[in-house]
Amino acid sequence: MLQFFFNRSTLRPWLWLTQLYPILIIMPPKTPKNISSVSSLFTLSLSLVTTVSLFPLIITQPVLAQRSENSGSNTTQPPITPDQIFYEVKGSELKACRKLAKPTKDKDKECVEAGRGYTTILRTANSLYSDGNVADAETLYRKLIERYPKEAEAYYKLGSLLLTQQKNSDAIDLLKKAISLNADHAKAHNDLGIAFANNGEMDGAIAEWRTAVKINPDFPDALTNLGLGLLQPGQNKKDEAIANLKKAKELFIKQGRNQQADRVEQVLQEVSKESSKS
After folding, report:
1. How far, in Å, are 87, 166, 203 from residue 196 at the CA level?
2. Residue 194's closest CA among 159, 232, 225?
């Protein structure tokens, strides 16, 4: 879960990664009783839809064999585990490789073709990311951008990955590039909004979340972010914020994301509680 905590005076968020599936949301209230601002009554966080594929590719690990140096027969090495595999891209070809147990002067690895084309490489990178192999996923995303510079998705995936690593400037550049190639990429607009919020640029963040919601009105993550953003000091748009949060909650329930729906409900209750005091 990626969470952004806002300091009341500076609105500078702190970001950290707590799990590999960054989706949402809101932490329980932990604030002093004497603070009157509604945005300070509970901890705000922003929802990030990132590089985890909805349909991660499961690649059958190739059987790599090595000829024994002591005999004339072929012997198969012990079964390969996922952490022994690394991937290389040459042109449009994806290769699955592993280091040889007994490397020679001329050969230290063994590779087999794992697939070809943009979609195969992208899905493999997504699968690596979802398995926690962020470094190899990043490498493949960069290879995709190098090989297919006109495809928006690789820029989006890499930008979102770098956002989880607090590399905000690089993330913004990549997300903007994704949007320049596909202006209707709602998730890229959502994540760019988070990057702007991370820089304290709340107006820019809200603009991106509005765009994400305009593209996809049933995008609960962006609706949540927009609602939370509109609750920030200086926005004065509580009614609109509540409307967005209520819709987000309904959509989360429809999608079976009940934990997220419950947390949005916590925010709505806090807003209602604060309103009744004023």
Report:
1. 33, 12, 8
2. 225
Give residue-wise pLDDT tens across range 174-195.
999 999 999 999 999 999 999 9
Tens of pLDDT, residue by residue over 247-277, are: 999 999 999 999 999 999 999 999 988 888 7
Tell me the C-alpha distance between 164 and 144, whole Å. Answer: 20
Contact 186/216 with Cβ under 8 angstroms?
yes
Residue 94: partners with Cβ closer than 8 Å, 6 or more residues away? 87, 88, 113, 114, 115, 116, 120, 121, 124
pTM over 0.85: no
DSSP assignments along 214-245, one per residue: HH-TT-HHHHHHHHHHHTSTTT--HHHHHHHH
* Residue 26 burial (CB count, 10 A): 23
The tokens for 85 are 């595999």
- Nearest-CA neighbor of 159 among 131, 190, 116? 190
Find out whether 151 and 178 touch, Cβ atoms under 8 Å.
no
Contact in structure between 175 and 155 (CB atoms under 8 Å): yes
What is the rounded radius of gyration, in angstroms, for the C-alpha atoms of the chain? 23
